[in-house]
Amino acid sequence: MKAKDDLSGHLLAGGLDGRHLPVAVIGGGQAGLAASYCLSAARVEHIVLERRSIGHEWREKRWDSFSLVTPNYQCLLPGHEYAGPAPDGFMVRDEIVDYLRDYVRKFDPPILEGVEVTLLRHDGQRFELQTSRGTLYADQVVVATGAYQLPRIPRIAERLPGSVFQLHSGDYKNPQQLPEGETLVVGTGQSGCQIAEDLHLAGRKVHLATGTAPRVARFYRGRDCMTWLDEIGHYTKGITEFADQDGTRHKVNHYVTGRDGGRDIDLRAFAREGMQLYGRLSTIEGSTVSFQDDLKRNLDGADAVAEGIKNLIDAYIAEKGLNQPEEPRYTPVWEPGPDVPDRINLYTCNISSVIWCTGFSADYRWIDLPVFNGHGYPTHTRGVTSLPGLYVLGLPWLWTWGSGRFRGIGDDARHLTEQILRNAQLQKRVA
To answer: What is the pLDDT of residue 15?
Structure first.
């Protein structure tokens, strides 16, 4: 493999201005590192540009108690499968950072940290990358920056009183970060539910505005549900097998947790223990916050998805004739009654903080290339964009459910390496 020392030393030690490489990879997270490993294995000269440092997003944009929701054995970066003592466990935040840093130490990719690409364009013959260390040129480019750069906070947040402390889930660290008083968490995707749980376990009073996110049981019939789904083949099902590809790509993830060895997140149980649940947030007028009358529908919908997954597992067990323990189905432990309010006063409820768990958007403002659809999403087929030589990697549902996770990035990186080699040969023939 090509290591750093095989690249021209002056390229890494000096400026990038005027340099020309066969391939540039933008982003040094798990996607960029996987791409680099595969390119090195194919002996393709390249460089990886990371604007911050290895593991930065995991270290700085996750809360203190964060853990993976997929089992450790599904960490399958190429050449770096999980080999720790807990394959069925769930790595916590700092262990994830160590996993990535160990990957870098293991195969020594040609990576430059602290280099930001501020503009990517094409001059008709090659790609031009304007960076914080000069302008670099490349025949082909892999954009591996992911889809979670810009925190999404609804404009309605501007209507909250100035005395209420607000932050996005990407900036939440721990309960001690918040002022005294109660907290309104908005959103019930994975982050919203896990942060609500974090506050709840710390003894903080939580108000939770729910949404339509589905849930999944952690374990069922003797195994982790994600292990069942892996064996059934769910993780290798390509996006083209779905009728609504755009809808599938943008679905909210099922909420569950890997905390303390993994368990269900049951919002009904939280309500029984004192967490106040509401429907979807509707309006804010001064200190009054209103909610839609859809709490029961949201809870029932999440449970229906979880039970549907169990149906798939039951059918698979029966088809294969597996000897697995029987398990009773879920019975709701709490139901919303007529006393669930549709509006509250923040001051009366002593709510001093709001956490917006409303997701992220990708930031492609630095890319000046005609490859985006009307919603700002890069048009591609398994990472191969409509512009020859430009690729994207690490996006959710780039090809499979695992494409944006440690589970499936390696498969996509290998596929793109094949495309890069094929395109390089085509370029030589044209030249």
So the answer is: 72
